[in-house]
Amino acid sequence: MSEERNLKDLREVAEQQIEARISLAAPLPETPEALRHELSVHQIELELQNEELRQSVLQLRQAHERYLGLYDFAPVGYFTLDAGGNIQEANLRAGRLLGVGRPQLLGRRLAQFTAPESRSTLATLLPRLLASRDGLVAELKLQRADGSVFPVRLEGQLHLPGGSLIAVTDVSTEKAAQEELLRLNETLEARVVERTAKIRELGDELRTVAVAVAEDLLAPLRRVGAFAELLRRAVSAVPDVPVQHFDALFRSVERIEELARALLEYNQASSMRARLIPLDLNRVFSELHKELRPQMTGRDVHLTSAALPTVTADSRTMQLIFLKLLENALKFSATRERVNIHVGAEETGTEYILSFEDNGVGFNNRHRDKLFQVFKRLHPESAFPGTGIGLAVVRRAATRFGGRVWAEGRQGEGATFFVAWPKHPNVLE
């Protein structure tokens, strides 16, 4: 009895739902013609929807074919692995890299195609890959079906839950280029060492020859001067014999002696022993200030300095640098009524920049590279006598310890010479 009542209740609920749906639906056409028209419209709508669906399916098929083309013919081998490292999918490039057909790859473990020395690397990489969302990159070696081994760059990322996508790039050419570059570097280093030794040997020979020539010149020059003086005294008593040519001869002899001594001084700056110690430059300046007083006598000279640093240097080398630069400033300020020479210093992370500024005749900045060359001059010897080697000595002395020198000036407005001295100098032979 209760079952019949339940069935009756369910029937009533169903009828109520049908009536509700009918009341909400659009009214049915009242005539057969209207019904046929409505059916035709629905048929056309269905055909249009079917055409749109066919186009969507075609586009999806084309996109899938393009994806397969890109996947198969990519220049990189692609593998899809499951959690156990078994190959689920692979592109054509992957098969070509390993020398087997794609069907023979599927279902096999990637470790089977890994060189023995790289299997532990792969075994460590795969669990890490499954636990990482950022992907991993590693280099290892794979083994082809014919047993040949080649290096690859392996890039992996999590693909599906419990699986991973592996991209494999053959880096044989890159590794061969690196090995060739290393071999060339080793060869180049050996050649550089050989050339450096040869240059050092030639430099030593040149210095030896220069010193020998300079020293051998001095003794004959002294004898020439002495004999010329005797000759002048002998002929001076003879009437109508000109003796003014002897003055030119004496000047030439003195000039050659100056150049020979200058050459010896330059070579000495290149070869004298060096002892690096903490050196207070204020003390160096003070000592040279006293030494240069004879050259400042009778002139209005103001020789000043800022607070100078304590540097690591060879005492004789630094005194030589200061002496040559201060003498140069005094010489080219000789035409000034009031001479101002100032020594300053700045500090950088790696160097101390020393500056020697004067208000002398200056020079044309276009020719400043000639200043530090041996026997090169920017001013005539008749106006400013000298050998033209003092600044070359400064450059050689500074560069021997890894320092740098340069100058800035303007004609008629003075000049500033700079010495960049390293905080950690090394003696360069």
TrEMBL record:
It holds the Pfam family HATPase_c. Keywords: ATP-binding, Kinase, Membrane, Nucleotide-binding, Transferase. Residues 212-425 form the Histidine kinase domain. The keyword ATP-binding applies. Residues 63-133 form the PAS domain. One of its GO terms (molecular function) is ATP binding. InterPro entries: BphY/WalK/GraS-like, HATPase_C_sf, HATPase_dom, His_kinase_dom, HisK_dim/P_sf, PAS, PAS-like_dom_sf, Sig_transdc_His_kin-like_C. It catalyses: ATP + protein L-histidine = ADP + protein N-phospho-L-histidine. Its EC number is 2.7.13.3. CDD domains: PAS. PANTHER family: BACTERIOPHYTOCHROME, TWO-COMPONENT HISTIDINE KINASE. This is histidine kinase. It comes from Deinococcus petrolearius.
